[in-house]
Amino acid sequence: MSRKKIVAIGGGTGMPVLLRGLKQLPVDLSAIVTVADDGGSSGKLRTELAMPAPGDIRNVIAALADAEPMLIDLFQHRFKNGNGLSGHSMGNLLLAAMTSISGDFYNGIKEISRVLKVKGNIYPIANQNVVLHAEMMDGEIVTGESNIPLANKQIKRVFVSPLPVKPLPEAIEAIKQADLIVISPGSLYTSVMPNLIVPEIEHALREARGKVVYVCNVMTQYGETTGYTAGDHIQAIHDHIGADIVSAIVVNNSAIEQDIRKDYAEENAEPVVYDISRLKSLGIEVIEADIIDHDQRKLRHDTHKIAKLLYAML
């Protein structure tokens, strides 16, 4: 019997959490990852070497790697000091070197994935440098993934340049063949949307035979989704790619402790309200479960709970 195929789409901190659980399951896994990051080490390398941003890809490789823990620690190591090295992570430098050796970012990813025994396929959303822009409700255009939340304005839409963005044919094929497509939690406008708004990806999602499910963030994010309900998250996706793509949403229904709420309130973040009736009016199937890791001070999705839930959907 052939294994079921799951495709995860996203970036940021939510994507690796999702993948770490899924890689333990008997499924064929593919990850389609944003390369619109422009901050920190990723941003420096992308500017200096005119390559796609490696940061989100690096975290996905580390999440899916089956190598010795020591090797993964080395790959994720970030240099604290040193004039040119400060702030760079070893994995980003390796991806930059491999891109240079193989002459192509995607080939570089494949080579490093082989060395680190990655379970699954990793596809950058594009094999070229991509810049993210946001149009705010007041008409201002903000350029650069890291600048968008700093503007702290209501976002009307995000878009990428230069066009056309050409996704890898393998990524399109993976979406078409998938039994389940998961839009991962993460920064809605700067980690999730940059993947969905690529026209060929949007088209593939619309044609896909597998169900498309969005794993909703547990907390709002200052400067991106302040005051957003789960329905607002879905509405934003609808506004960008149409109302006929996402068919289900996974929301957390377990209580969040007061002291954790307090910590987040300092960052102007609060629990995402699940407006069930609005979600249903948008034609979305709502899947409620306890999907958070209760042992952490930082609210994270529980990698095993979420993986089990998604696997059950197959």
UniProtKB/TrEMBL annotation:
SUPFAM superfamilies per record: CofD-like
In terms of domain of life, where is this protein from? Bacteria
Identify the keywords attached in UniProt to this record, alphabetized: Cytoplasm
The keyword Cytoplasm appears for this protein: yes
List, alphabetically, the InterPro entries matched: CofD, CofD-like_dom_sf, Gluconeogen_factor
Q: Which GO terms describe its molecular function?
A: LPPG:FO 2-phospho-L-lactate transferase activity
HAMAP family membership: Gluconeogen_factor
Q: What is this protein called?
A: Gluconeogenesis factor
**Which organism is this protein's natural source?**
Terribacillus halophilus
